[in-house]
Design brief:
By secondary structure, this protein is mostly beta strands. It has 1 helix and 32 strands. Strands 2, 3, 5, 13, 16, 17, 18 and 19 form an 8-stranded mixed beta sheet that branches. A 6-stranded mixed beta sheet has the order 1-11-7-8-9-10, with no helix packed on it. It has a 6-stranded mixed beta sheet with strand order 25-22-21-28-31-30, with no helix packed on it.
Length: 455
């Protein structure tokens, strides 16, 4: 196995990347990092450096602020250096410079590096030696070439009127830190109550580790001039938590919601961390059956027109057991079997939901309830005046009575009016109505209505 030996001499005016961190993470793959670092200043012009910043930092967002004597420290330049160490870059910098290498057969070479491509190395050592790369066991370079770094580094050129150590705050935006919420919902045997617990998943792919960071999460849609694509890494296998301690304090912040973690936490690079957002809370839930055909849109033969959707609905209200602003995220729904074990029954994604608003979670399609929609008649009464008659049959193969919400949508380009119906309806908007149809156990109900269009 080939090894590369480096003798590295790097002098920085700053301490290592081990300051005090504050992280504000948005769910749009962008985060604000603030860290407190101590720097040694001397009078005059000098460079100070901070090693180990995230590799995905936005260098145009960096802000440097001395916490004391700020008026005596002038910032002249700000640079982000990311020319990191790699074998190819070391070879590039050592062209025409002396190197040493040893082959697998323990043959030693020393001389000036002339070329390192096409799987071969050319060394000038009195004559010319061409050595195959796959035959080399060890390389030796006397030092790290100037300008190469082991970690991404921020460098400031400053003019100082003071000497001594001062604490400074460095802040910047970075990609690669993201968070999303997951929820575990457990419905009871009668589908009347639901136990909901919330979790936060933090993904750190920023290229840096943050030790003992003070963490804040922003829920909401912050406008960004450059689009930062959202990345949602689904965390499968979230089971029902036995107990969860509240770890976040929530409050409104500007037009968003801010969740502040009550204790420091460490986020390692290339790590996904899960934290409890709130402990399990119980709330009443309603199961809703919905049949929604494609209305006036043409349907392909064999299209799933008979499916009846199953939705769980609850109100995010304190008097209902919740009342917590819910960040967008995936809700996984489980139901307790008669033996007490939990079985997965479906999942859906919810949007940011304020308190006192309804939450609907689509979990799947009913097996024992089917719907069938048919256009029974179409008459052209006059130019730009027609009547259409529709029939919706609902069949319930369950052993209990159900109610099915039938959603009908009408032509947006025409004025419409329902002139006959054997069931009452609710007009939801300018083009949508809903009928609530009861269906007896192992029975069938038929909705029939007539609609008149003018245009």
């Amino acid at each position: 196995m080939r090894t590369i030996t480096l003798f590295i001499i790097v002098v920085f005016a700053a301490c290592a990347f081990a300051g005090e961190f504050s992280l504000t993470v948005y769910n749009q793959d962008i985060s604000l990092v603030k860290q407190k670092e101590g720097f040694n200043f001397s009078k005059g012009t000098q460079e100070i450096s901070l090693q180990g910043v995230p590799s995905r930092v936005d260098p145009t967002s960096v802000h440097f602020k001395p916490l004391k004597d700020a008026n005596r420290i002038a910032l002249l330049e700000q640079n982000y250096r990311y020319d990191l160490v790699s074998p190819s870059k070391i070879f590039e910098r050592y062209l025409d410079h002396k190197i040493q290498l040893t082959t697998k057969g323990d043959k030693f070479y020393e001389g000036s590096l002339l070329s390192f491509n096409e799987g071969q190395i050319v060394i000038k050592n009195g004559g010319l030696s061409i050595v195959r790369v796959d035959e080399i066991r060890d390389y030796h370079f006397p030092e790290l070439p100037e300008g190469l770094l082991t970690k991404p580094t921020l460098v400031w050129l400053i003019e100082s009127d003071i000497s001594g150590r001062r604490d400074c705050e460095v802040s910047y935006l970075t990609k690669g830190l993201n968070w999303h919420a997951e929820y575990v919902a457990v419905v009871d045997q009668e589908d009347k109550n639901l136990e909901l617990s919330g979790w936060v998943s933090l993904d750190n792919n920023s290229g840096a580790t943050y030790e003992n960071a003070r963490l804040k999460l922003i829920a909401g849609e912050v406008h960004l001039v450059e689009a930062y694509p959202a990345r949602l890494a689904d965390m499968e296998g979230l089971g029902r938590p036995s107990k969860a301690v509240p770890q976040f304090e929530e409050r409104a912040f500007f037009e968003y919601h801010l969740y502040t973690m009550t204790r420091p936490t460490t986020l390692k690079d290339k790590e996904t961390k899960q934290l409890s957002l709130f402990p399990a809370a119980s709330t009443p839930v309603k199961k809703i059956y919905t049949f929604e055909s494609r209305g006036y849109y043409p349907r392909a033969r064999g299209e799933m027109d008979q499916k009846v959707a199953v939705t769980l609905e609850f109100t995010n209200a304190s008097k209902q057991g919740l009342g917590i602003p819910l960040p967008q995220g995936k809700v996984r729904v489980y139901k307790a079997d008669r033996d007490g074990s939990l079985e997965f029954v479906g999942e859906d994604r919810i949007d940011h939901t304020p308190k006192d608003e309804k939450v609907r979670v689509f979990v799947g399609n009913a097996f024992d309830i089917v719907g069938e929609r048919t256009q029974k008649e179409r008459k052209e009464l006059a130019p730009k005046l027609i009547e259409e008659t529709y029939e919706v049959k609902l069949r319930n193969h369950k052993e209990e009575k159900v109610e099915v919400v039938v959603v009908e949508r009408f032509y947006r380009s025409r004025d419409w009016e329902i002139i006959e119906s054997n069931y009452t309806y609710i007009k939801k908007d300018a083009w949508t109505v809903e009928f609530v149809i009861p269906v007896k156990p192992d029975g069938e109900s038929t909705l029939e209505y007539k609609v008149r269009y003018r245009w």
